[in-house]
UniProtKB/TrEMBL annotation:
GO biological process: methylation
GO molecular function, one term: S-adenosylmethionine-dependent methyltransferase activity
Sequence ranges assigned to domain CheR-type methyltransferase in this UniProt record: 1-265
Keywords, ordered alphabetically: Methyltransferase, S-adenosyl-L-methionine, TPR repeat, Transferase
Protein name in UniProt: Chemotaxis protein methyltransferase WspC
CDD domains membership: AdoMet_MTases (cd02440)
Alphabetized PANTHER family for the sequence: CHEMOTAXIS PROTEIN METHYLTRANSFERASE
Chain positions covered by the region annotation Disordered: 271-300
Amino acid sequence: MIEHIERLLKSRIGLDAESVGRSVIERAVRQRMGALGQHDLEGYWTTLGGSPREQQALVEAVVVPETWFFRYPESFNALASLAQERHTQLHGARPLRLISLPCSSGEEPYSIAMTLLDAGFAAEQFRIDALDVSDRVLEQARQGLYGRNSFRGDALAFRERFFDEQATGGFLLAERVRSCVRLRTGNLLDPGLFAGEPGYDFIFCRNLLIYFDRPTQLRVLELLKRQLQEGGTLFIGPAEASLASQNGLQALGRQQTFAFRMASTIPAASLPFRAPGNRTRPAAITAPRPSPPSRPRPVTRTLGAAAPAAVAVDIWTEVAHLANAGRTDEARQRSEQHLQQHGPSAAAYYWLGLICDSAGQGDQACAYYRKAIYLEPQHREALTHLAAHLQAQGDEAGAQRLYRRAQNPEVGEGD
């Protein structure tokens, strides 16, 4: 029955079950069954099939947003200068058009608005659309009230400028920022989503493609390319850079921005210089079973309650022993149990990738490695294994970029 639910989620939002792990979907189903007071899975499936409202509730239980203001700050620094350049090119003939999708609870599109306001743009000089499949998170975005988890790091001066701390708790975003963003429900798999809409100068679609299977990734990427104005910029997630570079997009060469344009629209003089030379081609992964990393990695970030570091190390040591003993089914089960109990973690996805590699499931392995890199952009082992796969597929440029990132944490996706 879970297989039927997975297919429904794939048809509705394009979700590839392997990208999040079956345990995450099972946990969401149990959550919804509990909310409805149901105990029979077949009964829940019947309810689900006849209730678009319940389908939406399940989608929202599966898609757990992980977002905060000015996530990937280098992208917003780049946006400020790129927007000025674009505005100059247009001679002020029209407002800049930007979109954030999925926008979740609003932190990304509101960060875009604050970036442009701080860069000297007047509100009428730009327009920001923000789309998400979840009505619940869109309602949170409309309220504009955020807790401390939405503010991370030390660079929080923007909070003093654009938010009012509430006596009842939380921070309320200024109306002058909220009014810059048009929030609406939208699904990228809807063929009529952009019907009649002009293209965008800047598209933010970060960490969405990693949840899709390969055909859906390509379908969505082509849609985004069609919606990009000539000379426009697409911002994607760190784990999605190789997909973009293989499909007609070129990194702008700005470190850690994950900003791309259509390759034909970037002047050759602006591309980063790469000296020619012979590179040794690393061998593809052929080991019959996965090998543990030199040091087991503790969980560094999860969406649920974090386990103590010592416990995390014990878990991955156990997984390593099981995998190296050929007990890969048990190793997979332990990794999926960790996902179910603690939420997504780079270590769990990395080990699931290795286990898939050992079983010859290359596509699934790549999906897990990308997920690990999404949660931990400088995860050395995941970067290295994914690079080997890209190299085996003939994507030498993408592979070398990942190898450089694995060897040097300061190297960005365009270097």
